[in-house]
């Protein structure tokens, strides 16, 4: 049972690891200044394909639930994420976003009746500190709108994670994943057209490869693994795994782009890894003491 749980944890951890490659793919393969287009292409085609494969549409209350979850997990999150990314240095945006495990832990205590332990709180604070050491720079500038967007992105994703755990769909995993991707993509589509205009008339082979990677690997596969983890694990334990994203992004920047990696960044990565591992450890259950054997008093018969 224990090995099976850790197997699910490792599979779920593939999702933030995949998401950590998004920065590299975006900067090296995608056309510039088209973040909302990337958000649409990342979600909508993948969702349509998953719905077509499963041949399942929402029924009853799941029409509006799929819309709400798609807006929180996909549409609103990606829009706020890109606003924060454009108005803030990457390190500031990632550090602000690292409060998500703390938000999920607080929401889970209220909505899911999950126990809020001191270890979870310490791990959440350590995760923010570790991400700060990993990606934050001393000369980083702050922008009020950017900080608000980054906080909003962390908040809506936290709400989406908790509601995804609270609302367990009876439909197959790939179907519910597809519903959310379609809903989120459709939500961002009109905003992308209004802000960025029509897509580029021509796309290079590298552009097409980047979009295909984001849609197939970064969305269809990654979100399916993410929601599968949410079905099997607590919302708090799953969201801590999201701290892997800045670790992977930093490692790829060093290995592929030749970016410098200093000692504080290595320390930050170690703190992040320690925090997410600590969050996955199940609390030990105290074994109940054996019931005392009742003593039978034998007296003289009257």
Rounded mean pLDDT score: 86
> How much helicity do the residues have?
over 70%
- Spell the H/E element sequence: HHHHHHHHHHHHH
How many domain units? 1
Rg calc: 22 Å
Number of strands: 0
Give the terminus-to-terminus CA distance: 59 Å
Unreliable spans are 296-302
Shape: globular
Compute the number of helices: 13
Q: Structural class given helices, strands, pairing?
A: mainly alpha
As a percent range, the share of strand residues is under 5%
**Biggest sheet overview:** none
Question: What are its keywords?
Answer:
mainly alpha; 73% helix
List the helices and strands and how they pair.
Layout: H1 2-19, H2 22-29, H3 35-54, H4 62-87, H5 90-97, H6 100-111, H7 118-135, H8 144-166, H9 173-196, H10 205-232, H11 235-240, H12 244-255, H13 263-280
Overall description:
Helix 3 runs antiparallel to helix 9 and helix 4 runs antiparallel to helix 8. The protein has one domain. It is globular. With 302 residues, it is an all-alpha fold. The C terminus is likely disordered. The chain has 13 helices and no strands.
What is the gist of this entry?
The chain is mostly helical and 302 residues long. The chain contains 13 helices and no strands. It has one domain.
